[in-house]
Each structure stands twice: as structure tokens, then as C-alpha cells.
Amino acid sequence: MKFACLSLCLSACLSISLSAYNFIILTLLGILFETPFLTILFYYLNRINVSLYTQGVLRVRKRVTLMAVTVTAIFGILWARDIIAHNLDSFTSLRISKLGYAVIHMLLLLNSAVNPFVYALVNTNFREKLQGMICCS
């Protein structure tokens, strides 16, 4: 009887410590994702005076910023589902099915597949090089 009580107590303590560990890891991942995104966003919202730069440099910077914000937003949107699903599994009584996790993991793979297309839409130089590679010219 004492062994069962001790086992139940240890199981509850382990469950609480794993939940706390998951919460800390997921919080750190959220902070690590938000920091570069918000830094880029705030930096370019308060951009430096236009008279210091030529129009060509500003145009390039805007394209690079658009590409970085787009890639970061797509990353956040596609990875948010995984973070939410793991939080629901860890901290609530809701459980995500295997099919749900399969769909979520396919979205994570989609993140890597979408990046070249984003680069091609924004960067003409990248688009030309990619066309040269695909067409073997």
C-alpha cells in the first residue's frame, strides 16, 4: 500500500515537473521567435531619414525587409499550430489526435517548401538564378 502511494506521489511530481519544463521551453521558443520579428518591425517603422540614403538603397532595403517579415510571418503562422497543440496536450485535458499531429507536422514541412517561392517573389536576382537552375540553361 505504501509503495502504491509513493508511486502515485512520484508520478504526480514528475507530471508537474514535465509540465513546467514544457511551459518554460515553449515560452523560450515564443520569445526567441518574437524578438527578431519585432526588432525588424520596429526598426523599419522608425526608419532613418530618407535624405541620408539614395532611392535605390531604400528600395533594396524595403524588398529585403518585406522578404524577412514575410518569411518570419509564415514561420510563425505554420509553427504556431505545433506550439498550441503541445500546450493543449501538456496543460489541459484536451488531446490532439494522431491525424491532427500529422497535419500539423505537414504544415511544419510546408514552411521549408514555401521559402524558395517567397524568395523568388521578392528577389529578382534569386528568381533569375532559380530559373537558370531549373531550366538547365
Give a nutshell description of this structure:
The chain is mostly helical and 137 residues long. The chain has helices at 2-45, 55-91, 98-122, 124-135.
Pick out its properties.
137 residues; 4 helices; mainly alpha; 0% strand; flat
What does this protein structure show overall?
The protein has 137 residues and is mainly alpha-helical. The protein has one domain. It has four helices and no strands. Helix 3 (98-122) crosses helix 4 (124-135). The protein is flat. The N and C termini lie far apart (77 Å).
Largest sheet: none
State the separation between the terminal residues, measured CA to CA: 77 Å
Work out the number of β strands. 0
The domain tally reads 1
Structural class: mainly alpha
Q: What string gives the helices and strands in order?
A: HHHH
- Tell me, what's the shape? flat
On the 0-100 scale, what is the average pLDDT? 76
Q: Please work out how many helical segments DSSP would assign.
A: 4
Radius of gyration: 23 Å
Q: Which band does the percent of strand residues land in?
A: under 5%
Percent helix, as a range, is over 70%
Parts with pLDDT < 50 across at least 5 consecutive residues: none
List the helices and strands and how they pair.
Elements: H1 2-45, H2 55-91, H3 98-122, H4 124-135
Helix pairs in contact: 1-2, 2-3, 3-4
